[in-house]
Amino acid sequence: MTSTHTLRNDPKKVAIASMIGTAIEFFDYYIYAAAAVLVFNTQFFKSGDPVSDELFSLSTLALAFFARPIGSALFGHFGDKIGRKRTLVASLLLMGLSTVTIGLLPNYESIGIWATVLLCLCRVGQGIGLGGEWGGAALVATENAPDGKRAWYGTFPQLGAPIGLFLANGAFFLVSYTFGKEALVEWAWRIPFISSIVLVAVGLWVRLTLHESHVFREAEEKGKTQKAPVSAVFKHHMKPLILGTFIMTATYVLFYIMTAFAQVYSRTPAKLSEAGHPMGLGIEPNTFTGLLLLSAIVFGAFVSISGIFADKIGRRKWLIYVTAGIGIFGLCMPYFLSNGTPVSVFIFLVIGMSFMGMTFGPMAALLPELFPTEVRYSGASLAYNFASIVGATIAATFAIKINAAYGILGVGIYLAVNALITLLALFASKETKNIDLTEM
To answer: What share of the chain in percent tops pLDDT 70?
Structure first.
């Protein structure tokens, strides 16, 4: 029998492969978010009230978050049972097919409510695909990492988020710049969705060149694999599941306030709500997209920086410092967004994306370290995606309503409260940087 040693992956190759794969999946995921803000309210919703159509469009973002735990359970089951590699290929295929199909859908004027239904089904497909993607990519990167560098290697799949964000918003920026805003809304929005088929093909080729994780193979050889790993998580590992969920919560709230809420708030014409609070800044959509593109670079830089410090001082201590900073940042939001200019919005995005990188980076190491090998895919994926329900399903729409009733300070307090919840979960957890994944 071939020894596990000869089949070990090159950590650098794994890091690049996991980064490329997650970048493609997050690109697919974020072009939907961009289109939901810019286009879908007119293409797939016709209630007669523009504000309601915008809220309906934004609410479809939540469908993916409720679908992601299904993806966690489905792909986690097979990832812990038959291996990480094949499961990652399947998740990428599902995401790619769902995204390309969205680009081909007829709009509301063509087939009525069925256009809305089909859009929602494709969004659910995206959610299931990403629900299975993240855990597998994180495990492949960290289980193949050299000793003492798990958090650093774990940042490579995390880099898929800022790269995907940059590419998605860059695609919409280029399409809008090339064809104009009217064409973007009418038909050109389909270009990023359909063109993602090329990226998916590249991602599949990269992933098919990898070997199975040696950590999983050793567990398989020792007979440690579970028949029902998802069930085992709920029966025997509820504490790390709950802690992992709330450790990740502030990260999700911060990200969707930075990308979805801030985008809607910035481009909405400057006017007051019934309670007398500013509802928007009236900044041109392309201007905000350009600012978001630049801040995505900052996001990626701090993802990498976070891995170095999380390996050096520990995941728990690093995240406690960062999460406290997120809470303070939330309370300072009015200084940036109340009657803000493009310059103050850009400063807000840069600071927020710095914190986003610092909190998101270590998660690919920390969440898998909470669970033993035989349930690691399922446990880490479920924690990551349950956090998406707690932290992100209502973040964008809820923040808009909070702003209308209480102003930007209310939105900042909402972020600070979630940071406090994450801090409590971190204080209840233990440091994991020195554990041996093969012995768990």
So the answer is: 93
